[in-house]
């Protein structure tokens, strides 16, 4: 699996120097069927100073970390439930 990142930056206003940003984690193993695994976005951000550009990076990182925490939390809730269900179903067949 070839996991990569790709970005899309659209200029919303030249005068104001604001943009929209999309960051996607993709699997491009099959070039004809690229799969988007994760998406993070900022709809409107000023990028007229180095500090504001850093804010864009910080916000994308915040979104990434929040999504990672959600995945980890869901995994801890589910745990081995799927495997437990399969074992239980197999035991029902034995009865």
Structure characterization notes:
The protein contains two helices and three strands; from the N terminus they run βββαα. It has 95 residues and is α+β, with helices and mostly antiparallel strands. The protein has one domain (3-94). A three-stranded antiparallel beta sheet has the order 1-2-3, covered by helices on one side.
Short description:
The chain is 45% helix and 35% strand. With 95 residues, the chain is α+β, with helices and mostly antiparallel strands.
What are its keywords?
3-stranded antiparallel β-sheet; elongated; alpha+beta; 2 helices; 95 residues
Helix content estimate: 40-55%
Q: Give the SSE order as H and E letters.
A: EEEHH
Q: Report the principal-axis shape.
A: elongated
As a percent range, the share of strand residues is: 25-35%
Number of helices in the DSSP assignment: 2
Give the structural class: alpha+beta
Provide the low-confidence segments as ranges.
none
Q: Which sheet architecture does the biggest sheet show?
A: 3 strands, antiparallel
Average pLDDT for all residues: 93
Order of strands, main sheet, comes to 1-2-3
Q: Tell me the distance between the termini.
A: 42 Å
């Amino acid at each position: 699996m070839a996991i990569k990142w790709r970005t899309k930056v659209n200029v919303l206003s030249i005068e104001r120097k604001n943009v929209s940003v999309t960051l996607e984690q993709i699997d491009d193993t099959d070039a004809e069927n690229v799969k988007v695994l994760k998406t993070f976005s900022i709809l409107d951000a000023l990028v007229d100073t180095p500090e504001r550009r850093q804010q864009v990076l910080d916000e994308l990182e915040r979104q990434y970390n929040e999504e990672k925490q959600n995945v980890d939390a869901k995994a801890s809730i589910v745990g081995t439930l799927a495997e437990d269900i399969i074992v239980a179903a197999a035991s029902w067949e034995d009865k």
